[in-house]
Design brief:
- Helices cover 46% and strands 13% of the residues.
- With 327 residues, it is of the alpha/beta class.
- β3 and β4 form a beta hairpin.
Amino acid sequence: MKKTFIINIITVILLLLTIEGILRMFGNLTPLGLSEGVINNKSYEPNFNNNNVKNLKVFGKKVYTDSEGFRISGKKTNYQDRDKIIYFVGGSVTFGSGVTYEDTFVGILNSKSNNIFHINSGVIGSNIKNNYFILKNKIIDKNSEKIYVNFSLDDLIMTSLINDEKADRRNNLTILEKLKKIELFVWLNNFLRSKSVTYVYIKGFALDVPKSYYLQTIKYYKLKKNIEFMKEYLGKIEKINSKNDNKIVFLLIPYSHQINNENCLIDDFAENIIKNELNNRNLQYINFKTIFCKNESKKKIFFTNDPSHLSPYGNNIVARHLSDINR
């Protein structure tokens, strides 16, 4: 009996390891989570990457930063003497969570260009306010050819508003929200999502993470406070843009749920709000939803069951389009 039990346990473990290996090789998945020390969050805001990060991990991939906190390949790079520099500002999508530097759209662009250096100024968790601080404090304008700023769907969300909403419905929490208040559950969830793509896949499939994140995020566009917050910082970015020869171009990289067959046919109210606010300020933008929706392999653009992060394939689409524009 004891021997049979042990054999069954070993069989289950081997089966799980086999599934894990297959999903890592063929599943277009990545573990989640990031090492402590990537982000300098000693102050509440603004948040920048720590300088000279080495061998820390973000979504299972090793990351490195230079003396300015910009993401680099790990090799020493001198870009100050380059004639032309293009900066990229944004959150985790710009940073390239889940892919090596070489597979980020910034890294791909650098591999194809000798005369222009592309700098990854992305910071995980950055929103429109933090992006403004990056533009104000981190971008050296004198030799910048262009500055791309990614506007992700969740970039207008203020932490205070999220906390307010949670407080308003504290007596009507779902089972999952109640579990998130248990320290052991939170620790176990964080541990498993950072180690196992099998767990990431099962959780994403069971909860339909792309759809649930999308529906949760667009709700914040119905809050007047959030829209005012967005308008305030778009106005500040507009002033920076006007002082710098209109070099800023926004990248509208959608959530994965926004490019399913149904949503490719329409623009939701959040998308329209974003585009209207950019148009009102004569801020240029590139709408990648249109580009992604035309792609024959849309399902490969994002990691499986991931609401927003681009796979190597998705990063390559962005890089290829920007390369064609900047020729």
